Amino acid sequence: MTKHVFLVVFCALSLASYAQKNSVVDKQELEKLKKEMTTVEKPSGDTLQWKFGGLVSANFSQAAFSNWAGGGQDAISLNTLLYLFAHHFGEHHIWENHLRIGYGFLTQEETGFRKTDDKIEFISKYGLDAFRHWFYSGLFRFRTQLAPGYNYPNDSDKISDFLSPAYITAAIGMNFKPDFPLALFLSPFTGKITIVQDQQLADAGAYGVEPAAYDSSGNKIRDGKNLRGEFGGSLQLNFAIDLMENVRYSTVLNLFSNYLHNPQNIDVLWDNLLSLKINKYLSAVISVNIVYDDDIRIAVDEDGDGTIDATGPRTQIKEVLSLGFSYQF
To answer: What backbone phi and psi angles, to 5 degrees, belong to 33?
Structure first.
């Protein structure tokens, strides 16, 4: 409940802050964006511009105890984030590329090594001029993780791994990019592939793939499938704003409806990032990720007695606060 309240307050404050600043900064932001988007001439006469940038963040903490009366456990934690972008602006097109890689871990004396963050995501979107602020567009997105994940505290129960799952999305539609930092991509034609490379997870039917088949004696007669295809419609919203000096908020919301199975159950992937720059190399980063996928079944111990009471789709929320080295370029 606390996490849900934190999320609602966080998003509300962000939108409120933007509304207050909007009348003051609209002209400044517009002039800044126009300046950045101005094309430069090549010797051949073609007009184009590449724009590159990103964010590197590494945050480390360590605690050690020796004869400490108050008690405590030795612990080491590290959270890292790499975000890169490369955008190409031509006379009649825009090509945007984003790469996000995040990994974090915590190791304690009693519980040992545990993963706290793990993400790889690549997005490429191409748009061709249609009419005012609208582009005919195509989008490609790939998302997976780096290392195995376990159902802690049981570190022998693996529930995810590299390419297990992985998601590939390809879409064709229209992209709306007005003269402020917002983009809206609408696609009535979206293909989505779920990959579960780990056969043990595939046999269990993890992440919506078809599970293995067994005879009456419990012998496997058919492997679980490693791929699951879906076709439907999708929406992607990108928004970024400087809330105040050295404070930047960005959000990416992805929605998907599978035309072929329960189209009313919308898959949600919502990433929020708030970065607070202390100086050139020190900053704080808060990320909040929300996921809902009707095909992902999550086991829940509702009464805390160590037994599974229910299994089904759940709203997944992850929040990470990092303080440490950060360099934005």
So the answer is: -65, -40
